[in-house]
Here is the input.
Amino acid sequence: MSFVEIVIGDNQGNNIILPRAMWQAFIERRADIERFVQSIAPSSLSVQDLVIEIIKMRDVKVVKLTLRETSVYEAINHALHVQTQTLR
Here is the structure.
């Protein structure tokens, strides 16, 4: 039996591993997430246990993803670095 883990990481070496069900929920809410990221008002959005926030760091809007007290940060004008890793 094999499965796929979705690993989201930032350039600081922080990684979040999303279970398949959470990744599917993330994809299903893609339109909501895109609207959220484009919004001006600071707030947060949850996809199961994953919390998505828009924050400002050094005058740059940044997406902060938090799952079980682990956070990943990515500038909004850059795509999230997503790796898939098949395990057997």
Summary: Residues 78-88 have pLDDT under 50 and may be disordered. The first strand starts at residue 3 and ends at 9.
